Amino acid sequence: MEKIIIIAMFVQVTLSLVVMVIMGKRRFAAAKNKHIQLSDFAAMRLDNAGDHVRVADRNFSNQFEIPVLFYAGCLLALQLNMASVPIAVLACIFVATRIIHSLIHLGSNHLRARFRIFLLGCLAVFVMWFLLLLGVLLN
């Protein structure tokens, strides 16, 4: 199960980097189209860049919020030799929800669908941590 958890972590890291590239492309396109000036990047004044750019910026920031709890849980599971099938499945579910969340956020940005998939990912991380806590308390 350790390999599956590490692969899930790798996929999450890859997602973060892919979103960073998308964000960069959108920023440079906004600068090229004169929606913002290159000097706006000094203080990150991107209000005039448009929602397309701000959504990508926000999605990139999202990759360092709840996923931090995911990484910590995965590392704890690996460190405590608690890399079980349920933990691995939850890790995969979390990463799948993050991919779907990003696709929605960077695409249609349908709020209800985005929120539901976000909650499912949060639930996966919570259950992962709950199982880790149970494992520590019961051993």
Overview of the molecule:
The structure is a single chain. With 139 residues, the protein is mostly helical. Helices cover 77% and strands 0% of the residues. It has 5 helices and no strands. It has helices at residues 2-32, 51-62, 66-79, 85-106, 111-138. The longest helix is centred in the first third of the chain and has 31 residues, at 2-32. The mean pLDDT is 94.
What secondary-structure arrangement, pairings included, does this model have?
Layout: H1 2-32, H2 51-62, H3 66-79, H4 85-106, H5 111-138
Structural class: mainly alpha
Gyration radius, in Å: 18 Å
N to C succession of SSEs: HHHHH
Which percent range describes the beta-strand content?
Answer: under 5%
Shape: elongated
For the terminal residues, how far apart are their CA atoms? 19 Å
Main β-sheet, in a few words?
A: none
Q: What is the β-strand count?
A: 0
Number of helices: 5
Overall pLDDT confidence: 94
List the uncertain runs: none
- Secondary structure: helix percent: over 70%
